[in-house]
UniProtKB/TrEMBL annotation:
PROSITE patterns documented for this protein: FUMARATE_LYASES
Enzyme Commission code(s) on record: 4.3.2.2
GO MF term set: (S)-2-(5-amino-1-(5-phospho-D-ribosyl)imidazole-4-carboxamido) succinate lyase (fumarate-forming) activity; N6-(1,2-dicarboxyethyl)AMP AMP-lyase (fumarate-forming) activity
Record protein name field: Adenylosuccinate lyase
GO terms, biological process: 'de novo' AMP biosynthetic process; 'de novo' IMP biosynthetic process
InterPro entries in UniProt: AdenyloSucc_lyase_C (IPR019468), Fumarase/histidase_N (IPR024083), Fumarate_lyase_CS (IPR020557), Fumarate_lyase_fam (IPR000362), Fumarate_lyase_N (IPR022761), L-Aspartase-like (IPR008948), Pur_lyase (IPR004769)
Reactions catalysed, as given in the entry: (2S)-2-[5-amino-1-(5-phospho-beta-D-ribosyl)imidazole-4-carboxamido]succinate = 5-amino-1-(5-phospho-beta-D-ribosyl)imidazole-4-carboxamide + fumarate; N(6)-(1,2-dicarboxyethyl)-AMP = fumarate + AMP
A GO CC term assigned to this protein in UniProt: cytosol
Pathway annotation from the record: Purine metabolism; AMP biosynthesis via de novo pathway; AMP from IMP: step 2/2; Purine metabolism; IMP biosynthesis via de novo pathway; 5-amino-1-(5-phospho-D-ribosyl)imidazole-4-carboxamide from 5-amino-1-(5-phospho-D-ribosyl)imidazole-4-carboxylate: step 2/2
Residue stretches making up the Adenylosuccinate lyase C-terminal domain: 349-429
Pfam families listed in its UniProt record: ADSL_C, Lyase_1
Amino acid sequence: MLERYTRKEMGNIWTEQNRYQAWLEVEILACEAWGELGDIPKEDVAKIRANAKFDVDRIHEIELETRHDVVAFTRSVSESLGAERKWVHYGLTSTDVVDTANSYLLKQANEILRKDLENFIAIIGEKAKEHKYTVTMGRTHGVHAEPTTFGLKLALWYEEMKRNLERFNFAADGVEFGKISGAVGTYANIDPFVEAYVCEKLGTTPAPISTQTLQRDRHAEYLATLALIATSVEKFAVEVRALQKSEVREVEEFFAKGQKGSSAMPHKRNPIGSENVTGLARVIRGHMVTAYENVPLWHERDISHSSAERIILPDSTILLDYILNRFGNIVKNLTVFPENMKRNMDRTLGLIYSQRVLLALIDKGLAREAAYDVVQPRAMEAWEKQVPFRELVEQDATITENLSAEEIADCFDYNYHLKNVDLIFDRLGL
């Protein structure tokens, strides 16, 4: 992954050095398990634990000849040992090491992502409470519908991200599985105790059944979940972008002193963070497709998934870590313009209250169809002539015969639309 989008803690997990270190830990733990069974002398196990190491450059050098990274790795490790080297990789196949180590690395990545999600949810929740009663325009099909609050928009995001956290925890559990079951999953040359021992020490779960590999439906579900989380954040980012349009300008990403929006136009203040998040979410969705393509491996295994996973597993976790932190900061520092929100509500000349007039007439005894046929012509006239809708309502004989001036005025009070805000927030625990 590009350094530009890599946060240090997550990036450190996926370094080549750390990947080989995870492989080495699997190898050593397997030797310890054999030692517990009495198959490897305890003194040899102690020497392996104390002295086993690898050299990345040496692995690369050996791989030029072997064209097999695990073989190159085990030879490099063996070069650091004495006669006890014969026990390295004892009874194992390459994927016993690689799949189990990958799950261990994913577990580490998941701990970071879980914290990211919890922090992100907290930021949105606080911003939602801050703007609980900040009235704004609700839009459907991009057209003014009825008043809502900016806090409710954020509360919607809050609840969606809580669902995403639940999905993530489930998918993370599903991918934190190890397997040390041999060449085709039969434990022919390995005792199942070795698998159980290694997984327990790594904090992963032994797969109930496997072939030479862990089945890739686990990884597909995991990548799909990361993609869904990224897509949710993208949805939020698209909303910020839409609300930052010059003709709307209800919110704006924080614009730092000295920041530049364009090389050509000095006036520009662009939602670059939200646009950045939008683009990166697309990349993660692409990785999800690749993860699905990895599910149908041949027979008890092939290697077609391996090259893809070297990209999609590190990159997806790195990118989601970046997305959650970047957009979390955008929300935290978001500039909100309540006066612009109210001003935009007035741009449609009061048409946003048409349903209130409709329902008031129905409450007075008019049939729904008849009431609709009274209100709609006045609404269309307001659109076409750019006349305030309330004026037309007050001039309509059918309406004024049924509604008093006070009742008409009540129809045009935006506070009516906020009467259940507290109820919704209470349901969310905000």
